[in-house]
Amino acid sequence: MVERAEEIYQALLNSGISEKELTKHVNEKETEFQGFMTKRAILYLIAKEHGIDVDSREDKEILNHIAEEVIDYNDSAIPISSVLENLRNIVIAGRVEAVYQVRDFVKKDNTPGRVGSFQICDNSDCIKVVLWNESVEIMENELFKKGEIIQVVGAYSKKGRDGNLEVHLGRQGNIILAPENVKIHEIVELKVSENKSSEPSSTPVRESKEKKSKWTVQSLYEKEGFVRFITGTVEVEFFKELTLKNGDKSFLFKLVLSDESASIKVTIWGLQAVECVKLITDGDKVKLSNIVIKENSYTNEKELNFTKKSTLEVLG
To answer: What does each C-alpha distance from 25 to 14, 29, 41, 240, 272 come to in angstroms?
Structure first.
């Protein structure tokens, strides 16, 4: 790691950047990321900003993986049963079970408006989806009909007039008809084994209330979809700051979760990666909640993936 940092540092100097200027850039990045980025990652980012190709084979594999994963809404999708009131940027998928009549109305500013709705179901629950104005046009598409699978991206949840929970498509939201490779969420129900240890935790804020229950990692390899929680010990693989193809910055945290039966890789993206890397060290026992198990399209291996509702707790 140190040698790699020195190679990037020298490549920057060879490009014509003075040592004084480079030191200034490094200090600015260290302040910006508040100490949660290694020197190598900072130098890597500076090099990319100056158009210097310093990608190692590992870097290129990760960036290729990002190119596939950032457009895969399955990573952000949650089962319908996990939709709670007042959520934002929801991604769900399901089969259309009922379509309701589109209604025209007049808005408060005397302009015409339209509202349409339908019900979708996955393997965990069903929910009503409400569309407004131009978004209603998707319901007139020949691919939109009862029995078809669709994906709802960028919705928000609220209580309807009947008091039942609904999801409404946001202004920047989208309905994807006949999505490719979409997987209807399945609740993973595994046998619970009892852990009789009752030793109190020295860090109660980070303690799980379900310390007596744990899943078997080996069993997850036969499953796919939503996992309510799993416990095990962790080993950190790496934490990286990355530049996506669209120019946005992101973070990637990879770790390995193990119990007495097997081990499985865990992938955490974005600000969640930053929060989690601050919490854990090698050998910690943790509980991961509301996660998704899926096959990594780049490595073809099963992995646990964090969603926006996923959490990590360090157990005492």
So the answer is: 16, 6, 13, 18, 25
User: What CATH number is associated with residue 310?
Assistant: 2.40.50.140
Phi, psi at 45, each rounded to 5°? -65, -45
> What does the longest C-alpha to C-alpha distance in the chain come to?
68
Beta-bridge partner residues of 152: 92, 175
172 and 217 in one domain? no
Judge whether 251 and 53 are in contact, CB under 8 Å: no
Clarify whether residues 167 and 240 are in a common domain. no
pLDDT tens column, 102-139:
999 998 888 899 999 999 998 888 999 999 998 999 99
For residue 76, what are its two tokens?
Answer: 């952000």
Does 278 map to a domain? Answer: yes
Burial (Cβ within 10 Å: 0-12, 13-18, ≥19) of residue 316: middle
Q: Is 223 helix (H, G, I), strand (E, B) or coil?
A: coil
Domains: count for the chain: 3
pLDDT in tens, 288-297: 988 888 877 6
Residues 44 and 97 in one domain: no
Q: What would the DSSP string read from start to end of 33-66? A: TTT-S-HHHHHHHHHHHTT-----HHHHHHHHHH
**What is the token pair recorded at 75?**
């990573």
* Statement to judge: residues 265 and 230 lie in one domain: yes
Rg (CA), the chain: 23
Question: Residue 147 belongs to what domain range?
Answer: 78-177
Provide the percentage of residues in the chain whose pLDDT is more than 90. 20
Residue 165 falls inside a structural domain: yes
Contacts of residue 115, defined as CB under 8 A and 6 or more positions apart, other chains included, come to 102, 103, 105, 130, 131, 132, 133, 136
The secondary structure element, H or E, covering residue 272 is: helix 270-279
Q: Rounded to whole angstroms, how far apart are CA atoms 170 and 88? A: 9
